[in-house]
Structures are given as structure tokens and as C-alpha cells.
Amino acid sequence: MSVDTKDVTVVIVVCPLDDHALAREVVNATSNQKPAEVVVVSSTENFEFARRIASIDALRVVRVEQETPLGFARNLGVETSTTRFVAFLDSDAVPRPGWLEALCAHLGEDDVAAVGGPVLPVWPESRAPVLFRHSASAQHFLSMFDLGNQTISVSCVLPGNMAIDRKVMESLPFDSAAGRQVGSLIGAEEIPMMIRSREAGYQVIYEPRSVVDHHTRSDRMNWAWMWRRVFAAGRESARQRGVLEPLPRRDSITDVAFKVVVAVPYCLGKLVEIGSLRLSKDRK
């Protein structure tokens, strides 16, 4: 049973380092798809950005501190929403026409907790390392996601292009303490929600027609940034409670090569977090 786009609130989080011109484009493209409301959760102090989007119909801006974790900001957007269904976008991911309607095709089904779609790369002018462009594993760390052209049930989708049914979720679906923030690349604020949904017997649907174009920042086009991000992913893995099934894709030669290159920082991150968790437990 599909729902109408007017039954969905779209939450967009804008962070201090985000491109505000691009964020306005995302907000405008979202508003054109006729949701019930667009809620912008903003931790930026750029008042020109707020002024320029103020005239958009059915839009609310909620301000948070710059140090706010992304998970907390997304949850605040959920709390602000008045609709049963809530969709999420990152401020650097421009939704294509039909994006919201495609998500709505699955929302409202009794066994569906969340729906998401492809997050396709728009590369910056600066040259990206070869493995970044040709490895799905590398692109996942860059917040890109593509599982092909078939609608399928999966273990997870990305929070920068997804919608949830609040009726089957907890009141605060994201991990409020997780998610990227100023000075930290730790994410995975959506993973506990995905694990809970699957364990409760609900589906997470990948819908290939619900496409967003993700504009990757040039400062991420280097191995130094990637090693920091993978180190953070190792820490995320150590914190995870529960198991997600692997995504339905086969590793290519470039995927294997990428995983070899980043194995050390990933394992270091995991060991550091395990040690930190044990130390915290001992202090208690």
C-alpha cells in the first residue's frame, strides 16, 4: 500500500562545513516534490542560508549547536515532524524528480520499516584516487550506495536517502550519540535501528528509482582522509550490538584491493574502541 507524498515529512540536516548553496538546491528540489513539510535541522551560523530558504512553503528551520551529532539532529527532525512517515536527506544529496514518490510506493506496507535508494556520486573537479572511483567498498565510506536496478529487501540503507515508518520504529530511531560532527568521522547512527527492525521481522527495502546525486567534497579525495574515515568505521564496528547480514553484492578486484589497503586503520580503530569500552567498564 503506497502513501501520498503529502503524508511524508522530509528532514534535511545542514552542518557547519556544508556547501550552503548546494544545501539550498537540495531544499528546493525536495520542496518541489510536495511533501507535507520540509524540516531543516541546521547547526550552521550562516544566516544568509536561513534567509534564502525562509520563503519556501511548508518549511521549518530548527537550530542546534555546531557540535551536535548527526544522529541527535536527525532525531530532532523526527520529533519535530507531525506525520507518520519521515524521509531523510543529507544537505549534499540532491533528490532527482520522482525520488519521494518512489519511496512512498513501499511506505505503509505492514512489514516495511524503512525504504532507501541509490546515492550516486557527483565527483569534484579534483582527481580522486582510482580505488575511490572503482570500488563500491570505498564509495560506501564516502556515503555512496548502489545495489543495482532491482527492488530488493536488504539489511540496511543509507540515512542520507531513506524514509521510515514511525509506527514501527522507536520514538527516537537514530543513535543520538552517534553520527558525524565537527572533529569526528564516526557515523553509523542508523545501524541500531536497522538491526532492531530486522530482528523484529520488518523489511528494509532498497528502491532503485529513488535516486539522489551525492556531491562529494574535494577534501575527501585523498588517502589521509580515507584512512581517518576507515579508522572511525573500525570504532563503529566495535560499538555495534547485533549483526547485519551482508549486502547483496560481490567484491570486485578493486574492492579486494581497497580492503587490503585500509585493513590496518580499520583494525586499529576497532582495537582502540574495544580498549576504550573495557576501560569505561572497569571504571564503573
Number of self-contained structural domains:
1
Give the strand order of the largest sheet, numbering strands 1, 2, ... along the chain: 3-2-1-4-9-6-10-8
Based on secondary structure, the structural category is alpha/beta
Determine the strand fraction and express it as a percent band.
15-25%
Helical segment count: 9
* Quaternary class: single chain
CATH topology-level fold name: Spore Coat Polysaccharide Biosynthesis Protein SpsA, Chain A
- Per DSSP E runs of 2 or more residues, the count of β-strands stands at 11
* Shape summary: globular
* Architecture (CATH level 2) name: Alpha-Beta Complex
Cα distance, first to last residue?
Answer: 49 Å
Helix/strand order: EHEHEHEEHEEHHEEHEEHH
Give the helix level as a range of percent. 25-40%
Q: Provide the residue-averaged pLDDT.
A: 90
CATH-assigned homologous superfamily: Spore Coat Polysaccharide Biosynthesis Protein SpsA, Chain A
Largest sheet: 8 strands, mixed
Low-confidence stretches: none
Rg from C-alpha positions? 18 Å
CATH level 1 class label? Alpha Beta
Descriptive report:
This protein has 284 residues and is an alpha/beta fold. It has one domain: Spore Coat Polysaccharide Biosynthesis Protein SpsA, Chain A (Alpha-Beta Complex), CATH 3.90.550.10. The chain is 37% helix and 18% strand. The chain is built from 9 helices and 11 strands. The protein has an 8-stranded mixed beta sheet, sandwiched between helices. Helix 2 links the parallel strand 2 and strand 3. Helix 8 crosses helix 9. The radius of gyration is 18 Å and the shape is globular. The relative contact order is 0.16. The mean pLDDT is 90.
